Amino acid sequence: MEIAIRPKLDRAAVEAIVRKHLPGPVEVVGHEEFKDGFFNAAHALELADGRHVVVKVAPDKEHKLLRYEVDLMATEIECFERGLAAGVPMPALHYGDPEGGVMIIDRLKGVTLPKAHADMSTAELLAVRREIGALSARFPTVTGERFGYPRKSGRTVADTWSASFFAMIDDVLADIAENDSPLPRPAEEIKAIVAAEKDLLDEVTRPALVHFDLWDGNVFVVKGESGWRVEAFIDGERAFYGDPIAEIVSLTFGPAEESDAAIDGFLGREMTEGEERRLALYRVYLMLILIAECAVRGFDEEQTAHQLGWSTESLVKNLALLEGSAS
């Protein structure tokens, strides 16, 4: 799929990047461009010495981006560095340039979960869901200095989670207004519903690292002698420091049984009523992002209609849940 903001690089340009930033003599013997991402360019290179790497390049800074997307490569590099240090399975990071918007990582050997899904039994799939939950729970063991996105502008950085989260909501609603994206309810009503949960949000007192994009396409799995297992997580550009419960949003896109397995792996218990309500807030936020990005990604008409449709449906559902729980 062609995405308007994704950088267009030829093989020579990608090879030049690895020759400049990887140690030792670099002879490239294979090249593949990945075209299924919606933001960064990603190219895989096979080197003569047996190394397999992926080069990621951020969109040009002249492109129109959403407010939270500023310095996104810097965010991803920080997520990789701190996640790897905490024992999260992620590709090795060989080079990261936050300012230049370039990173070089290992190429994984497995496949994304959607590609393996058909080859898994129900029991295997549920076991993998639990493992995804357990491994992703390592992200929030990392503590940030303050809440919010780790970017230079500091616009969403705050000492309390409510202040940071309200700033995140304000930013995405500003993006939506600026691009005249469709909302099922007025922005002020949405802001009021979120603002009513200030005390609930402030129950979160430690700024934990949250990947916030662990949908199945960002989960790689491999099949060994004992069955399927998680190989690694990728794409940490949406990461922020906030409530660990926010990680559950992308772990629970599937059927209830699979979602329950992921939550069990992540928490080791059922969610409390307060956590359920906070989760609804974070689903509202993600759905607003998905609505907003349709105006800046350059999606085709079919992709735009599909994404707007299901994200709006989820937004309406979770706003109603919050209003109902407050009554």
Automatic annotation (TrEMBL):
Pfam families hit by this protein? APH
Q: List the Gene3D superfamilies.
A: 3.90.1200.10
- For this protein, what is the EC number? 2.7.1.-
- Top enzyme class: transferase
Q: Name one GO molecular function term.
A: transferase activity
Aminoglycoside phosphotransferase domain span:
33-271
| Keywords annotated in UniProt | Transferase
State the source organism's domain of life. Answer: Bacteria
Q: Does the keyword Transferase apply?
A: yes
What name is this protein filed under? Aminoglycoside phosphotransferase family protein
Tell me what organism the protein belongs to.
Glycomyces tritici
